[in-house]
């Protein structure tokens, strides 16, 4: 979802920079890109491990809540769709079962899809907050496929982050990567079955996808 359906990566980056900065850790955009695709609780642990002197005066749970609150507010007020995202969802809606499998918490998924006006287009909304392991582990995708009553090998994942591509591949899914320019040449992005500049470039219809996605060749 983040960075694929909604242009929320800058929102996450701005929110993390602001909230972590208020708690004593100065981050920049490049720092935030290191944790792209991780759950926010994993982001907190990442920086605690990487910067031992980072000892905020609040609990990890409170820090997570502060970031989520800032992200949700920004998404609801200024979130914008990624190019081609809403059009593709609307084109496939009603012809194929659709799900969101995201590292974002459920409240952020709800806020983002509400902002884009496509909340009702998805049969399943599954957050990695419900899993023991977040991406790049495959758990969130496996659970989403199970909720759709579909085998992973019969599903197609769209991803924008290296960790997300690893997650979907580990689940056994076909994967289309739509990466940010900074990640375009990342080794994990290159493992996707297909790489697109934008969702506007996705031309396949439901019948072609049901036939086993024969066009998706590395």
What would you note in describing this structure?
The radius of gyration is 17 Å and the shape is globular. The protein has 218 residues and is mainly α. The model has no long low-confidence stretch (mean pLDDT 94). It has helices at residues 9-22, 29-33, 40-50, 60-78, 85-92, 106-116, 139-147, 162-171, 187-190, 206-210, and strands at residues 99-102, 124-127, 156-159, 174-177, 194-195. It has 2 domains: 9-78, Orthogonal Bundle (DNA polymerase, domain 1), CATH 1.10.150; 85-210, HAD superfamily/HAD-like (Rossmann fold, 3-Layer(aba) Sandwich), CATH 3.40.50.1000. Helix content is 44%, strand content 8%. It is built from 10 helices and 5 strands. Strands 3-4-5 form a 3-stranded parallel beta sheet, with helices on one face.
Q: Could you provide a short overview of the structure?
A:
The chain has 218 residues and is mainly alpha-helical. The chain is built from 10 helices and 5 strands, in the order H-H-H-H-H-E-H-E-H-E-H-E-H-E-H.
Key descriptive features of the protein:
globular, 2 domains, Rossmann fold, single chain, two-stranded parallel ribbon, DNA polymerase, domain 1, three-stranded parallel sheet, 218 residues, mainly alpha
- Gross geometry: globular
- How far apart the termini lie comes to 23 Å
Compressed to H and E, one letter per element, the order equals: HHHHHEHEHEHEHEH
For the record, the count of structural domains works out to: 2
Rg, nearest Å: 17 Å
Structure classification: mainly alpha
CATH domain class of the largest domain: Alpha Beta
Mind telling me which CATH architecture of the largest domain this is? 3-Layer(aba) Sandwich
CATH topology of the largest domain: Rossmann fold
Main sheet: strands, sense, barrel:
3 strands, parallel
Report the total helices: 10
Q: Spell out the CATH superfamily of the largest domain.
A: HAD superfamily/HAD-like
Helix content: 40-55%
